[in-house]
Amino acid sequence: MVATQPNSRGIDVLSKIIDPHVHLFNLEQGDYHWLDSTKPPYWPDKQRICHNYSDTDLKLPNGVQLGAIVHIEAGFDNSRPEREIAWLEQSVQTPLKTIAFADITAFDFGQRLHRLTQYQSVVGIRHILDHQASSILALAQTQQNLRILAEHALLFECQADLTEPTTLDHLLTILADNPALFVVINHCGFAGLPLSQPLHRHLCRLAHTGQVAIKCSGWEMTDRHWCETEMADMVTALLGIFTEQQLMMASNFPLSLLSVDYQTLWQRYLQLPVNSTTLQKICHDNSKRIYGL
Q1: Tell me: the pLDDT tens digits for 40-51?
Q2: I need a labelling partner for 243 at 20 to 30 A (CA). Which of 9, 25, 34, 86 fits?
Q3: CA 263 to chain centre
Q4: pTM above the 0.90 mark?
Q5: What b/e string do you get for 154-186 counting C-beta neighbours within 10 Å, with b at 16 or more?
């Protein structure tokens, strides 16, 4: 049990958290094509995060420690994603697990996965689906590759707009065909605040599979000036869908800096209107269990 202490609202908060969605940058060694202002995404404020970032930049509120991080691939080198993992394992001092990039449409996916699993920190892969989610998930090669992923007991990080019915149908079919596959939804399914009725229905269907967890993060991706109250309402709604065993609070650092600093973000999370047991699960225990920390 992680120790707790009262916050300004009189609610017990954790003394240690795990952040399961962090990106660190090494601009000298990595490619990071997506950070180029001439390439998508075309955010007018993208240059604000075009800097090197290490785990020493993750500053939490006073009295709260960073127990571990899960690094999510950040486009370091998509042709040789193992280079990013090697750099992370050599440089990060915080307890670490990693999600590597892997092209789930590749015919040599098994070989690529073999290279990645030579690294101790790797627990899964991510291929950003976004608006191509439906067409990518419909491919026979994708479905075969996700079976290979499940056979290796590795996670699939799903970054897609889950309001799309065809995306949901393909994902549900893949899960039904692969009962050993475990999927982690990134950024609440990219619907923005507040939770829409279509996404609520879709997430309920996914939650009922027992093969899906969800990360609450990425608020800045849809609204740089997101509302703390709406975020808390979203978390409450998602707890009703996924239960406190399947939900994780996460930062999406450094993209989160486009809205608030890291310390403020976690202060808001630690003041969510939930009891201390639930807070411990969604800010620490679930990430520890799901990512094998």
Answers
A1: 999 999 999 999
A2: 9
A3: 18
A4: yes
A5: bbbbbbbbbbbeebbebbbebbeebeebbbbbb
